[in-house]
Design goal:
Layout: H1 2-13, H2 19-28, H3 35-45, H4 50-64, H5 76-105
Helix pairs in contact: 1-2, 4-5
Region (Disordered): 69-107
Function: Forms part of the ribosomal stalk, playing a central role in the interaction of the ribosome with GTP-bound translation factors.
InterPro entries: P1/P2_N_sf, Ribosomal_P1/P2, Ribosomal_P1_arc, Ribosomal_P2
Amino acid sequence: MEYVYASLLLYHAGKEINEESVKKILEAAGIQVDDVRVKALVAALKEVNIEEAIKTAALPVAVGGAAPAAAPAQAPAEQKKEEKKEEKKEEVKEETVEEGLAGLFGF
């Protein structure tokens, strides 16, 4: 994940994502750099429109929005059941986004 974070940091800063710049960021963070992984990441990102990928990855979270509040007249047991269901739905959405990003960058 650190490699992807480094590339996103470079993208956000408007810098070129190349092997040297990714290595510098990772080394500055105290991470032992694997040259093969850096080369693979840089090669994979040449074919990716990062801005579009970020928009696409963020879309499921933005569409879901906040969960509606439970009706105040519900019994406490019913509220707990609904809260558990809402938590599970949010966990699934987060996992989906993380899997999407992992698949996008090949990690």
